[in-house]
Model the fold of this input.
Amino acid sequence: LVRDAGSEVLPLSPVGGSVLGARAAMLAGVSGSIAAASTIADLTLELLAKLAFTALGLVWLVHLRPGSPFAWPVVLGLAAACVVTAGFVLAQRRGALVADWLAVRLGRGWAERTAAGAAALQASLERVYRLRGGLWRGFALHLACWIGGAGEAWIALQLIDAPLPVGSVLVVESLVYAVRTVAVVVPNAVGVQEGAYIVVGAAFGLSPQTALALSLIKRARDLAIGLPAIGVWQAVESGRFWRRAALRRKP
Done:
């Protein structure tokens, strides 16, 4: 919850939200290397599930709109995303080599400590990636959540009296979140999400007003879930800070 809130509520990129999520895991007693490794692995699973969700949306797009102008850009974007994802996975598998290279060239002191931390992270990543059953279940859960998000949008459109078929909503959601993935550097995808809903939704009969309303419903959901999560996390962090300060003041 803290990780998603950091990405969707605070003016941070998804990377910043992931750092907050790993920090929250550490406050729950998870070691730093395991918190970082599990966050990285989970982000990888989420990205792979998003690619599968986009591919599913592409199949439905071709089925519903064989001559759609969105098809080829989605195909090219999906291919590029697969290459980037493969590089991300390879970097995780070869991270220890990079740490060793840095240690040799940057010398002793902080570089060695950095390399030691990177080696610990690499060992934790290898430990996580040996849990094959858990990885497959994590992937399936992420994919189910992406598809569930399309169901959420379908219900929202029903409630605002602008119904669309389930297949059409699936395509709209998959394309919108594919655009959001490309615009990962934009905090909270502000403007990007709204523009994507308007452009993609128009191809399936949604008026600009309805598309914007759907995007704002999603934003409201993020705030309703994210703000309490951030508040609880801040309360825990503050309590921990003041307890440490009290211990330092004791003679």
The chain has a mean pLDDT of 84. Residues 208-249 form the longest helix (42 residues).
